Amino acid sequence: MSALSERPDNPIVGIPMPHESAALHVTGEALYTDDLVGRIAGTLHAWPVQAPHTHALVTALRPEKAYEVPGVVRVLTADDVPGVNDAGVKHDEPLFPTEVMFHGHAVCWVLGETQEAARLGAAAVEVDYEPLPSLVTVQEAIAAESFQGTPRHLERGDAEAALEGAAHVFDGEFEFAGQEHFYLETHVSLALVDEGGQVLVHSSTQHPSETQEIVAHVLGVPSHEVTVQCLRMGGAFGGKEMQPHGYAAIAALGATLTGRPVRLRLNRTQDMTMSGKRHGFHSTWRVGFDDEGHILALEATLTADGGWSLDLSEPVLARALCHIDNAYWVPDIRVDGRVARTNKTSQTAFRGFGGPQGMLVMEDLLGRCAPLLGIDPLELRRRNLYQQDQTTPYGQPVRQADRLTACWNQVADSGEVARRRAEIAEFNHRHPHTKRGLAMTPVKFGISFNLTAFNQAGALVHVYKDGSVLINHGGTEMGQGLHTKMLQVAATALGLPLSRVRLAPTRTDKVPNTSATAASSGADLNGAAIKNACEQIRERLAQVAGGRLGISPNDVRFDDGVVRGLSPASGEIGWNELVNTAYHQRVQLWAAGFYRTEGLHWDPNVMQGEPFKYFANGVAASEVEVDGFTGAYTLRRVDIVHDVGDSLSPLIDIGQIEGGFVQGAGWLTLEDLRWDTSDGPNRGRLATQAASTYKLPSFSEMPEDFRVKLLEKAHEEGAVYGSKAVGEPPLMLAFSVREALREAAAAFGPAGSSVDLGCPATPEAVYWALDRARTPQAPEAAPSDADAGAEPAMAGGCASWRGK
Amino acid sequence: MSTPATPGVTVNGDRLPLTGVAAHTTALDWLRGRGLTGAKEGCAEGECGACSVMVARPGTTSPTEWTSVNACLVPVAALDGQEVVTSEGLGSSSDLHPVQQELAVRGGSQCGYCTPGFVCSLAAEFYRPGRVATDEACDHEHGPNGVDLHALSGNLCRCTGYRPIRDAAFALGSPEDGDALAARQQQPPPEPRPTRIAVDGAEFVRPETLTETLALLTERPEAQIVAGSTDWGVEVNLRGRRAPLVVAVDRLPELRELSFRTDYVEVGAALTLTEIERKLNGRIPLLAELFPQFASRLIRNSATIGGNIGTASPIGDAPPALLALDADVVLASPRGERVVALADYFTGYRETVRAADELIRGVRLPLPLAPLVGFHKIAKRRFDDISSVAVGYALEITDGAVVQARIGLGGVAATPLRAVATEDALVGRPWTEETVRRAAAVLAEEGTPMDDHRASASYRSAMLGQSLLRLFHTHPQTHPGRQEVPA
Question: What ipTM goes with this model?
Fold first, then answer.
């Protein structure tokens, strides 16, 4: 057991407890950025002028009429930017563009005394556009060879030769949709120049340090003149990793120019039409199996739809390539990846960060190939699971393959999968118009930022003279329970009851140069940094206590606010008294903590190395029921066993697993992003730009029976108090839902039907799938092809099968 | 018109004046501007429920009922004289309300942004007078404590996956003795009172009587009529509509009656869907099928039957059912009343025969009711979605033959319409699979469905045909004759 992972006696970590802000959440007392507006007098409100073109040059911009609207204070344009007119780190995102790159692109912003004034002012701004040809779908971009960033290539062995020798070879094409984050709190920033002349930006951001950097470069000032604070976010899911920067910069620019606080809050439509989403992907693949269904080789090309600028598309693509294997051993493999440039919002991080897209290609092809191989899909998946110490295509050993098997077996046993599948077969036999399906899928997800430098974190821990403790760390709270875990870590490390520790909002002037709270790494990184800071303080206090108790500092133990030696005979001293004593001995009672993840290396150019500290593992079994008249379905039961290491906070972790799963199920089965792909006047416009047209899961989509268990005896040597990351991996357990739908749809047809299922598998997509299954002679014209104005993501792609 | 009292709203027990409030100001913006920032804006169109608050409204089984509503859709002026409770009013972090307690300790909040809205929707269900604990009839949507999860059908959570919220909902007990909000339900609801608020040339007016209302509509044909204002809110928030005059009709007694007559049931236009659902209590089976599929509980608590017809949307949920029921619309104006068949009411996309000075007073549903009914709504999501297509059926089958058939369709044309050709293909023929398959082929060709983000035209057409097959599959047997409806 490593020093990092070892737990003391009576740890506070591991105790199930509600979110640290739960009582504030339920009463409405919890404050979010936009709730601060009423506390700050004289705040101005910002409103964007959004271009009604998908691609166009801005040939003239005349703000004069806006100033005729009562209450309009200022129109912000490119001429106002003292620093760099760019909102990103790649310098490909002009904050005030001269070329409109997507429908709804903001060309300038209006500040008003009220939101109403700003809105009316924005409507009065006159802009002349020269429309340009646009690329809206990823297919159009591929045809036009419109790509951006660096293409990536991942290879092991000789896939082509292996395919040549494989007993069964199949190929296919699969395009699937992205996903809107739909955090309940839209993007919001509130900026002001504070009493010290510093620009203070309250921002709903996962990445305060980068928000600070962008604000500073837009304002043309050094970073130390800007402080970004994030109290909490009303959800983020990756959507606030890069995307908040530009909005924060607009607010900060407005505040410095007018001398008044500026609030910029997007309404839902603005948020959906302007901010980036999960990348949709296009893929082509060839896969080879032996007669027993073992995967021999895979060749694939993944094209991510990056939208108009790079944002995080390159690392998203890298993670997609690294996760195309999901949990399966693929001896020979060649995967090419590229980022398409289209006239859409700039797609960005979203829980899983490309991992889900890579894995979906694999799970989809397994679901399609299993019937063609004559192998039960459940058995096909089980048979290909990684074995101990096999390596991934990028050369990292899978050291805990036994945990994958353990999760699989536990789900199969506790979920009574064999018995239920027999019952389902019986049910399906008796019900011509209703069919059920049950599928199991695994997840193996790499934890750490692919970019090694991001795997560092800082913390600041203060012990005040009265013994109370205040902690700061670089991570942000978006609902995932990071702060709850960090309080538990600090209390454990200092041997204090939780009530003695308080956590202050994340601020760049407390902990600098932080990484985004992303990649599921928040607790790993910041927890280790807090533990490091607490241990520095504890060691100093142990010296003081050793002197008082007359024992070696090495024998001093901190537990529940009492400090004592190994032997009861040595007596004890209360925490507060010890702190007070230490103060008078002029012992430093605060510390900065730091952590860097050890053992990582990665060469992005050859896509080889050990980019991940460890893998998170999990398995899900989902059972669905499908109505043959409509394609509508219900999720009857879900069983999950997931590996979170030794949980830091079990109630929080269960919540992450359940929430991630349902969010993943939303992406795969319900949430239907549609852009207007026609040549009509609204070409390129997001058709689903409101909650009324973009449907996320509600109560009606949650599993009727939802059983989640944490894998036991799952200590993780490499992470704080033996825990594992949990934020992203469970999202991908939802593949089991889509695969169960495929099986239920297949049950409408003759045994062994291979079913091509659209993604998202909406009731309509499921209906066409089951209708094709039950009417094998149905004409090839896929009904969704007739769906003018629809994203081709509707179609499952047209796989051409060939056995060999 | 009598002089209105000084406008004001009682919020969490405090009476707050409504001064300087624009006619388009929503209750949500007003509350947040007063520092009550618990309720949030998540979508501004009544879809997410983050803005849910409770309003003391007339009850059906108790004098008053705490009713959850979307604060983002209600003009705050419409709350003049009323009582509102927000998450802040239910409890504080040092003294949690039972609903807040259960949600907090069970992990019912993660980011917490949607939580105050869930709290209010769930508190309304906690206090619902008809809620009784039962060990039977429990399922994943109905708790042993009588909680109906549909109470939360208009609340979205992006974090939890809902399981802990369901557990919290099903763990709730009953209000304790002395619970002030429970006691409030036993007292009369706030009296409706006339309101007139004018700011910057825009007015919100709640006339006291129907006569006043009709006179005002005659004088000001540009008036925007609102009842539950669930459409008004969307127009104001998303499309920037700023009507010079908003006239509220939701409290007019003539529009709030539900009565059984010899030949018909009359349903007041300003009754909310929830009120109709509770008052009918299953006595009109076709509507009983419709209600749970009509938007969400939050919307049904405000939306009225008159409003659903008045907006004349081709995808409104009520018209297909009402067409199948052969409903009539009662239109009132200073010239008197006229009765128009609903089938003749819609004339084009969001256009009707209603004149500017006419007000929908009610809907008449002829008796006796057809015995074989069904309401099929096709949508992506089961709770709270807009239909791709909707079909209402009312059939009478005697001696194995279809003697009467009325089929109402939504989502297949610019207006809701009757599936006349399909009806012809059924009437006079035996209720057999063969008849149904032929008629289903006809039904699939009714209307001119379109492609959009909700569904493809081909799916819409397919669903029409499948719908009739599904009806037959559900009701393969012939049925007894017409049914009497107990008043």
Answer: 0.96
